[in-house]
Design a protein that fits this description.
alpha+beta, single chain, 52% helix
Length: 138
């Protein structure tokens, strides 16, 4: 994985705590804010609003779509933690100011808290989602 070990461990701790108590303890929320900085709170808001959808095709290929606070739908790939939002391209890739954008962090948090919406699609529909993203960028 390409996330720092401390971030991976924090997400594991959040998942464990959430499974046991259905909430995230304050010290883990502080850790989240410390490691992920200003993306932590907006990411938690996205999780609270159930904005994360796991899109799965019969082959098992999976991607995530996150309805951003602006109302735009962003496609996220948790396997390589990549997001189609402008903040990811700028703050994460160009400037290396952040580990992740709020959308990918919301994906990881919603996985940990079991808060993902689920959407089953055909292989063709998944391909169309991927192609639509390329058209937006090009």
């Amino acid at each position: 994985s390409t996330l720092p070990a401390v971030a991976e461990e924090l997400l594991r701790e959040i998942k464990k705590a959430f499974q046991e108590t259905s909430q995230v303890p304050d010290e883990l929320l502080l850790g989240l804010k410390f490691i992920f900085g200003p993306t932590a709170v907006p990411a938690l808001d996205l999780v609270d609003q159930r904005s994360v959808t796991r899109v799965r095709a019969p082959s098992g290929r999976t991607l995530y779509q996150v309805l951003g606070s602006s109302g735009k739908l962003y496609t996220c790939y948790s396997s390589c933690h990549f997001c189609t939002c402008p903040a990811f391209g700028f703050a994460v890739l160009q400037k290396s100011e952040s580990l992740l954008c709020k959308h990918i962090l919301a994906v990881y948090l919603s996985q940990a808290m079991g808060a993902c919406q689920e959407l089953a699609v055909s292989e063709e529909q998944l391909t169309n989602i991927l192609l639509a993203e390329e058209e937006d960028e090009g």
